[in-house]
Amino acid sequence: MLLSGIFPPITTPFYPDGNVYYKKLEANVERYSRTPVAGLVVLGSTGEAIFLSDDERRQVLKTARAVAANHKVLVAGTGIESASETLRLTDYAAELGYDVSMVRTPHYYKGQMKPANMLAFYRTVADRSPLPVMVYNVPGFTGYDIPAEVVVELANHPNIIGMKESGGDVEKIRKMMEGTRQVKRSAPVTETFDAVTPRMLKASSGSNGQGGELVQVAGVGGTKPSSNAVSVVSGIKTRQKEVGFQIVVGLAQKLEPSLQAGAVGGILAFACAAPTACYEIYTAWKEGDAELARLKQDRITKATTRVSGELSIPGLKYGMDLNGYFGGPSRLPLLPLTGELKAEVERLLADVRN
After folding, report:
1. What pLDDT, on a 0 to 100 scale, did the predictor assign at position 220?
2. Which of 146, 147, 166 is nearest to 45 (CA)?
3. Is the pLDDT of residue 227 over 80?
4. Contact (CB, 8 A) for 161 and 134
5. How many alpha carbons fall within 13 Å on the CB side of residue 115?
6. What are the distances in angstroms from CA 21 to CA 16, 63, 81, 93, 106?
7. What pLDDT, on the 0 to 100 scale, is given for residue 212?
8. From residue 286, how far is each of 183, 206, 264, 344 by CA, in Å?
9. Cα dist. 258→18, 117, 328 in Å?
10. Bridge partners of 187?
11. d(CA 308, CA 305)
12. Residue 218: what pLDDT?
């Protein structure tokens, strides 16, 4: 599974009375599907997943899945404190057709979260998960920072394909990339090296009536196809791309230096309000224009540090309102911005309209 690119961890819209506003969720997902982002993350920290009931989590997953474009990678945040509940939600996400499970580090019993506990937790989940698993480290919210050495060990599990690292330590990313260089895997991609998932193949098969058989385009006539050979699966031309353990960064203000350190993309709260601005950084880096990537990074660093960092979800949701998405209120105990803070967000996003 290819995880390269920019992924907004979409917010959960609410009515003023606190009920989930599913129609606005649909509208946001449809609009993100028209942007150049690689995919969407549903029920991440930005989605206030921890404030939702189990029924609401399932309905949010179902609603987003129903309207997301077929060519976008869909990541479900399924991490709950216990392995059994994490697997229960992961199974449901798989039934809906999600592509990847993103599992937050357990953290409530911090004193017991030793390396052995984390290794046992993630290996148990990965062994039984019907979806590829990403480790999700977000110490700013959990108060727990998974050690790089533990991640390096987990990277050897065949069903743990990557990690969202939101700790903000670029050197830690570099260390983890160096420690996982032995991990070599192959992922199907399109001719233009975009991700291909089983859900995408199934959708393509349903739309054109073809089956899911693999037809080799290159390497016919008894010749063994090379790794660069193009194949046709359910009407989609694909090839194989070698990928290692894939780390995506979780802080937009650290996107460019994290890419330089070996990250392959970002799951960025700021991308909920400004997906194109984040994508421009990634594209410049991908095209080898380091100077332009740094320039694009500098353009948003102050705004993302304040809006999605310090002001957190209420600030981000107001930024979404400014840029044409539905942000709306958050759930208590998160409070709406004051008029003064709203004016500050407006100033910060004045040249980051999307």
Report:
1. 33
2. 166
3. no
4. yes
5. 8
6. 9, 11, 26, 20, 28
7. 43
8. 22, 33, 9, 32
9. 36, 28, 31
10. 241
11. 6
12. 33
SS3 237: strand
**Sign, Cα dihedral of 35, 39, 43, 47:** negative
Cis ω for the linkage preceding 333 (within 30 of 0): yes
150 close to 118: Cβ distance less than 8 angstroms: yes
Catalytic residue among 164, 172, 317, 342: 164
CA 299 – CA 85 distance, rounded (Å): 41
Tell how strand 185-190 and strand 236-243 pair up.
Answer: antiparallel
Q: Mean pLDDT of all residues in the chain?
A: 92
Instruction: Summarize pLDDT for 232-252 with one digit per residue, the tens.
Output: 666 678 899 999 999 999 999
For residues 97, 157, 135, 59, the Cα torsion angle rounded to the nearest 10 degrees is 20
The pLDDT, as a whole number, for residue 191 is 86
pLDDT digits over 183-211, tens only?
999 999 998 889 999 899 888 876 544 44
Q: With pLDDT > 70 as the criterion, what percentage of the chain qualifies?
A: 92
Alpha-carbon distance 27 to 21, whole Å? 10
Q: How far is CA 269 from the centre of its chain?
A: 10
d(CA 98, CA 132): 10
Report residue 161 as tokens.
Answer: 């394909």
Confidence of residue 16 (pLDDT cuts 50, 70, 90): very high
Residue 139 token pair:
């110490």
| Residue appearing with tokens 């390269």 | 4
Enumerate the H helices of the chain as residue ranges. 22-32, 54-67, 83-96, 115-128, 139-142, 148-154, 170-179, 198-208, 255-261, 275-286, 290-304, 312-322, 339-348
What is the three-class DSSP state of 31?
helix
Active site residue 164: yes
